[in-house]
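In response to the reviewer comment on reproducibility (Comment 2.3), we provide here a single inverse folding case reported in full, input and output, so that an independent group could reproduce the run without further information from us. The C-alpha cells appear first.
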C-alpha cells in the first residue's frame, strides 16, 4: 500500500496477492461517485482519485487498485433498496431461491451490507431469524427502527466471530447483495464467512458480472466504490484458498447484468452444478484472460461518448434545452469520462427524495424531482439510469407524447421520439 489517509494504492491482487498487473481500461479521475453535495458544500474543494481498471496477471481478477477510504464513502449512504419496486421483486425471488436450496429448515440468516433491511424483512416474513451487518449509520438506524435487527459495522472476521458468539450458532444462510464488489480487504471477509457459515450452510452473493460489463459496455459501473469486477475464473481459486467452494452460478439481470454465486464449505453437502463449468468456458471463449475484450470496450465507449457529446452540442447550438433522468452513482463516471457538466445538462431528475436538492460530485449538476420534466419540459432528456431506460420511457412517455425526446447513451446512442416510441417499447426488453 502507498498513499495518504484517504487514498491508498494496492500493490497486490485482492484475490491472490500477485503483485503484477496490466491496465485494462483507463478512465478519467473522479470524486467518489456517491459523494453528492449540498448547496452549502459547492465551494469546498473536492478530491478526484485515479479510476483505472487493472487485471491481475496471475488470476486475471479485474479490480481497482486506487482505494478511497470506505469511511469517507459509506458512513452515510443515499441508496435505499426498498425504494425500488423492481428491486424488491428481485429480492423476493432471491429469498425463494435460497430457501428452496437451503438444507436447514430452521435457518439463521445473516446479510452482509443489509442496507435498509428490505431483504431481512422478506426473510422475517417467512418466520426466519435474521441479522443484518451494515456500515452506513443512517441505514442501520432505519432498519433497527423498523424491526429489522442490524449491527452497524463493517463485516470482517472479527464481526463474524462476534455474531457467532452472540447468537450461539453459525449462519445457515449468508447473503451479500451488491456489496462484496465494494470491499477492499476481501480475503478477510471470506475468512469471516468461512468462520460464520454453519457446516450445511450456503452463502449467496450477487455482484456485477465482468462478462456483462464487457459485453454490454457497462463501463459506468466502474467507480471507486466498486473495487472488484468479478468473474467465475478468478473466483474459483480464491474461494478454494479460503476453504470454500463455488457450487453454482447464475447470470441475473440486476445492475445491468450480474452474477449470483452459491458458495459452501469445501466438500460441503450441495452438489456441484454444471453452471460453474459452463460459465467458465464462456469466459474463456470471450478472452477474459487477455486484454482484448477491454481494448474493444474502450473503443466502443469512445464511440458512445462522441455520439452523445455531438448530439448535445448540436442541440445546444440550436438553442435547445437538455436535462437528464436519473442520478445513479454511475452518472459521475459517465459525466467525467465524457466531459459533460452543468453547462451541458441543466439538471438531473431523480425519483429518490434523498437525492433531490443535492448536486452531483465534481460536476455539480443539480438533482431535482421529476415534475419539471412535465411542467416545463426540456427538449431532450438523457437517461443516465440507462439500464432502466425501457421502464422509464414507458412510465414517462407523456414527455415524448408532448414532443420531448429521450436520449439513451448506452449500449449505443439511441433517440426515442414520437415517431419511434411505440416501436422502441415493442422491441426492447429491460
Ligand atoms: Zn490475482
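Designed residues, in position order:
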Amino acid at each position: 500500500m502507498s498513499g495518504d489517509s484517504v487514498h491508498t494504492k494496492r500493490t497486490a491482487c485482492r484475490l491472490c496477492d500477485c503483485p503484477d498487473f496490466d491496465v485494462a481500461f483507463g478512465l478519467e479521475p473522479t470524486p467518489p461517485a456517491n459523494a453528492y453535495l449540498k448547496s452549502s458544500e459547492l465551494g469546498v474543494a473536492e478530491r478526484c482519485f485515479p479510476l483505472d481498471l487493472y487485471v491481475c496477471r496471475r488470476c486475471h481478477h479485474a479490480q481497482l487498485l486506487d482505494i478511497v477510504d470506505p469511511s469517507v464513502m459509506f458512513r452515510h449512504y443515499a441508496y435505499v433498496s426498498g425504494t425500488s419496486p423492481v428491486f424488491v421483486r428481485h429480492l423476493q425471488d432471491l429469498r425463494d431461491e435460497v430457501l428452496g436450496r437451503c438444507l436447514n429448515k430452521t435457518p439463521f440468516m445473516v446479510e452482509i451490507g443489509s442496507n435498509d433491511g428490505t431483504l431481512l424483512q422478506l426473510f422475517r416474513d417467512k418466520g426466519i431469524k435474521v441479522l443484518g451487518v451494515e456500515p452506513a449509520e443512517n441505514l442501520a438506524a432505519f432498519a433497527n427502527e423498523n424491526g429489522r435487527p442490524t449491527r452497524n459495522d463493517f463485516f470482517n472476521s472479527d464481526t463474524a466471530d462476534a455474531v457467532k458468539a452472540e447468537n450461539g450458532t453459525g449462519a445457515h444462510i449468508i447473503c451479500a447483495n451488491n456489496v462484496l464488489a465494494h470491499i477492499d480487504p476481501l480475503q478477510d471477509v471470506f475468512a469471516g464467512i468461512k468462520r460464520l457459515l454453519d457446516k450445511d450452510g450456503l452463502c449467496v452473493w450477487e455482484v456485477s458480472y465482468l462478462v456483462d460489463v464487457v459485453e454490454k459496455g457497462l463501463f459506468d459501473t466502474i467507480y471507486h466504490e466498486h473495487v472488484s469486477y468479478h468473474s467465475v475464473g478468478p473466483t474459483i481459486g480464491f474461494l478454494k484458498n479460503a476453504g470454500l467452494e463455488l457450487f453454482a452460478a447464475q447470470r441475473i439481470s440486476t445492475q445491468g447484468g450480474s452474477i449470483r454465486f452459491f458458495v459452501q464449505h469445501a466438500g460441503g453437502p450441495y452438489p456441484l452444478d454444471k453452471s460453474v463449468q459452463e460459465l467458465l468456458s464462456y469466459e474463456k471463449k470471450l478472452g477474459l484472460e487477455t486484454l482484448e475484450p477491454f481494448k474493444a470496450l474502450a473503443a466502443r465507449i469512445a464511440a458512445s461518448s462522441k455520439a452523445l457529446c455531438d448530439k448535445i452540442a448540436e442541440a445546444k447550438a440550436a438553442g435547445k434545452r437538455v436535462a437528464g433522468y436519473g442520478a445513479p452513482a454511475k452518472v459521475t463516471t459517465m459525466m467525467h469520462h465524457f466531459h459533460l457538466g452543468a453547462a451541458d445538462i441543466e439538471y438531473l431528475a431523480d425519483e429518490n427524495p434523498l437525492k433531490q436538492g443535492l448536486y452531483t460530485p465534481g460536476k455539480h449538476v443539480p438533482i431535482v424531482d421529476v415534475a419539471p420534466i412535465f411542467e416545463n419540459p426540456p427538449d431532450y432528456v438523457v437517461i443516465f439510469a440507462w439500464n432502466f431506460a425501457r421502464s422509464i420511457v414507458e412510465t414517462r412517455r407523456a414527455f415524448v407524447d408532448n414532443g420531448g425526446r429521450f436520449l439513451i447513451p448506452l449500449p449505443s446512442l439511441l433517440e426515442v421520439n414520437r415517431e419511434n416510441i411505440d416501436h422502441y417499447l415493442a422491441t426492447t426488453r429491460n
